[in-house]
Amino acid sequence: MTAVAAPARTDATPAPASAAPLALPSGVKPTPALVLPDRTRALGAYLFMVADAMVLATIVAAYFAIKDGSSAWPPTGVGVGTYIPFIVTITLTMAACSAQWAVRAVRDNDQRNVAIALVFTIFLAVAAANAEWAAFAKAGFGVGDHAYGTFYYVLLGYHVAHLLVAVVLLALLAGRSLLGHFSADHHDPLRSGVLYFQYTNAVWYAVATALFVLSRVNG
Amino acid sequence: MTITDASPEADAPALPPAPLPVVQGSTAGTDHKVIGTLFVAAALVFLVVGGVLAVIMRSQTAAPDLHAVGANTYRQLFTMHGVVMVFLFLLPLWLGLVTALVPLQIGATRMAFPRVHALSLWLFVGGAGMVAAAPLASDVLGGWTLSTPLPEGAAFKGDGVDLLVLGLIVVAVAAITVAINVLATVLQLRAPGLTMARIPLFSWSATVSAAVMLLALPVLVGALLLLFVDRHYGGHVFNGFTGSRGGNPLLWPRLFWFGAYPLLWALLLPALGAVSDIVPVFARRRLFSHQRAVAAIAAVGVLSFAGWGSEVANLRRARPLFALGVLLVLVPVASLILNWVATAATAARQDKTLKERFRSVPMLHARGALGLLLLGLGGELVAALDAGGQSHRNYWGVATQHSLFFGAALVGAVAAIYYWAPKLWGRHLSEKLGRVQFLALVGGLFLTVLPMFVLGIQDMGAHTSSYVADGDLGPANLIASIGGAIVVLGVLLLVLNLLVSVVAHRGVAAGSDPWGGHTLEWTTTSPPPAANFAVLPEVRSETPLLDLAQSETQP
A59: nearest CA in chain B? Predict the structure, then answer.
């Protein structure tokens, strides 16, 4: 990386074409919107989360519709543990804090703490994903055994998939922070990435509430 | 694009064909005009496919006791025709026109996320390929709602449906990413002075449509995901009534229509916006009330979520509520129509060119869309009063959907294509061919839809593939079949016009503002350069170009 980047930086006479990002006739000022305004990426991330939350809301709505139409929920003889969901909740809550630590550190221009916080967050997220994997392995029922089983695998799977995407994003952000891409003034990607990670935590709370807490409440 | 002193424009004999707006170099793959054009091209291919499927279906039902295709094939045609027309034609058509035009209309140089835009296109192509391949894998018999028979039915099995479900998920995700892109572009990249209340009505309708899609399409994605888990992994969500295992097949139509009903309105909205932009330009005045049009379009978007239950049977107690929901959404549409009529009626009568302008091809199509809209609103009004009832399962529903959500949306889109083709592609479409095509398309649509309403009154089932000669269903069916064939002829003429005028460069080269437009896209060259605008005029109202013209005439 650095070997390629270094000569470009020291090049005293850069090609004139590289100055203009898009071809405009010479002498004409670019219109203001040529540069992406601040927070546009964050807006895109928010809109994505709205759409994603609607997918989750649909699945959760279907869950409650089926639950309300069932005589016993979860079906008689199906034991739902509290140990693993409890561990996952604690782990992800810690990860939520460490992710915010990264955002605070970048605001103070503290690159070292950004990297430490992100690596710590990744570690916790992977641990949570591992615990959820154990929840699959130790469930004692399959996706096709009953409706609760179907939703158990779909909802937990939905969260694990999101969590793994978040881990990849956080790893990319950690790499970029080590390369010095972020500063106190410019860290939009970091904010958006952490925002997405916090969203996956919200997904966990929704999923866990439906599967492990409200499943015990019979209306 | 560059005119040098050596070759003055006046002496030049015939201009060489202007290149399509394909940008050279690294931006070529992310230019919103190119991606939008590709979306439109894909949509038109699927329009022809869906139209041919319809003609085969209508040839089976043209007369009693025909055996052109078997009942099983008919159900497959029925399914694919619906799926192709909604998800592979109307959806990408608007994704294309909207993303090609909105940045130009709001004075932006690009989409907010150009690379995501390119991703959307290729996601759509992949998903559409999966959907199109589905009937090759196994029979697909569910109808476009994937619900007749209910998802657990034996006839619903097979890999083809799995492929269809996955393909629809991919197509929906592509559309969601476009919706995000459109919303971010409109919210963040507007020209200075162009407030949200001032953006052109096509862009506003596109924004509202994108917001509706952002909320409605994920519901379809969630429902389709559950359906896929049911079918592929033996889940028990819709696989129903198996004792303590749970599952409820009646849940499927509710989830499906919760997403699909607003989607249908979202696919009609840009047509309403396009007509709202076209009418004032050809009437040579401002729209009667821009504010009321903005409010009406927003209201259609919000209220589109209220009526989904009218399409679902067995919602006994909620029926009046959903009937009210559909009635409510019709009110802003009616208000918008009054706005257009008031604009046209108060146009300057002394203007001698007015009659001619009202007979130009874009305006003809706008008027055709208005006619189909009125017909569809009438059908939907009756259907609303019969929420969840028989008129949603017989030809009344077919007629309503084909006049409102297909006819008005299609003809509105064709109006938009004739109106904006000179801007996007630098060439006018042929006017002569356009008039013939208008007669075929709109005439054919009325000829198809009106007898379908009659068949609805006669209570012919929407899925009926064959009927006996005893009844009196024959004449109306025959007329509808002839009409359907004429519609397909109209579609082919449209494609021919685009091929001849734009692709083969035979159309008249367009100036930057051929219609006397009111909005920002007409300030730049036709076709626009890669970055759309060199300079932008000051925006002080919703019609910046009218302001500019007035300030020039009154120094």
Answer: B222
